[in-house]
């Protein structure tokens, strides 16, 4: 949860709305909080604060709603009013302590917790809520420290001891949460199952069990747990969210279209049953990105209404840019990503994908140098983004910017030496360096011999790790031909061309006709004055591939012509 350190404007004495809309029942408000219906819960609690202004429980739960929706300062204001209204109720002190934890101030939190204990040291709920407050950072962001599991479990254990009759399912729920947040699912399972024994109508524990199955990739088991929750309560939104995220993971993040569609369907149901808060809409937008539903993502992202000074606006710019690029709306993607970078001043919050989409958008706009800088940044953060360096290299190669292209493939190798697509990077490095030198030679300009040596080394590595990669030998042959002494050639290219033609399979000949013909011509030329039969065979094969090849035809005719008769003496 992105914590917004700002306050919602509070009118004098908390002028409250909606008092006639919802029943004046704290348990109903708590159920709404659990179901993540925060706007509904907020209206109910404001009404309760107005009608029962001396009951600290109402203030505490209203403050929790503000904490859960990211408004720490507003929560503090409510907790403070609650302490004034009901000074013997320690819950609002615990609320202030939780706000302190979310503000990375554990010292102040401990002070408030100690005051709460001093007021009601024998009440198990004191320790239960303190324990839960230590777990409050269950969605840590850059602004929020990790949960204090040690203090959380110590207080929850104390609550369990004081609740000797095990009458409160909330204690077991908190125990389960403390373990689940540490990914200790085996330890969490027992307490979550106890919840059902104490409170058979509790939906969250079973939802958490389904979530744990999802995290363990036991998708069928998780699906059953979550569908059981929905069967028992078709209006319990969190179960649909977890089921949606389960299907997303089960779909291998959009690869299985049917499961991805199920994921989106369930997540939309979750949205319909909850507040459609900005936070949940942003989470839905991120969900759509990973489900690869980019069209819907762009629609959702562009429709989001964000207050001018709300930092979530930066996230919206990000998602608009990502979606626009994936939908091939490249100019708009560049606009959105430029806007994002202008807004986000904290470099530590910039993701690899942000640099990636900015760079790729710049590449589409012809801003090659800027594009490469940003794609390199993306690869530094996440080596899988090195694939985009390869894309940039190919784009530059198609534009015949061979030197620049070769530099990019060299970087792609650096950041992705052994990963997906890495072998082709070695090949393209060799190919682009060959083209660069070939054109320079053709234009009677000096070429970069050192770069060619490095390219040949890359191709040599390719030959070793993938000896069946035929084109690697072909390009090595071209490079060797280019640098061979033109006056007294050594024929170093010939073994590479011979290896290449030996590796091309019959079904691959049609796609490799041009390269095969070039290889046979080079082989034939080398053997013309050394092994006439080999030379004739090579040129014959070249002509079979390309009957219009005048060079092969001329050389074959020359080799097959009878030798001129020796002149007789007088």
From TrEMBL:
<keyword id="KW-0732">Signal</keyword>
<feature type="repeat" description="TPR">
    <location>
        <begin position="386"/>
        <end position="419"/>
    </location>
</feature>
<feature type="repeat" description="TPR">
    <location>
        <begin position="517"/>
        <end position="549"/>
    </location>
</feature>
<feature type="repeat" description="TPR">
    <location>
        <begin position="169"/>
        <end position="202"/>
    </location>
</feature>
<dbReference type="InterPro" id="IPR019734">
    <property type="entry name" value="TPR_rpt"/>
</dbReference>
<feature type="signal peptide">
    <location>
        <begin position="1"/>
        <end position="23"/>
    </location>
</feature>
<protein>
    <submittedName>
        <fullName>Uncharacterized protein</fullName>
    </submittedName>
</protein>
<feature type="repeat" description="TPR">
    <location>
        <begin position="56"/>
        <end position="89"/>
    </location>
</feature>
<keyword id="KW-0802">TPR repeat</keyword>
<dbReference type="InterPro" id="IPR011990">
    <property type="entry name" value="TPR-like_helical_dom_sf"/>
</dbReference>
<dbReference type="InterPro" id="IPR050498">
    <property type="entry name" value="Ycf3"/>
</dbReference>
<keyword id="KW-0677">Repeat</keyword>
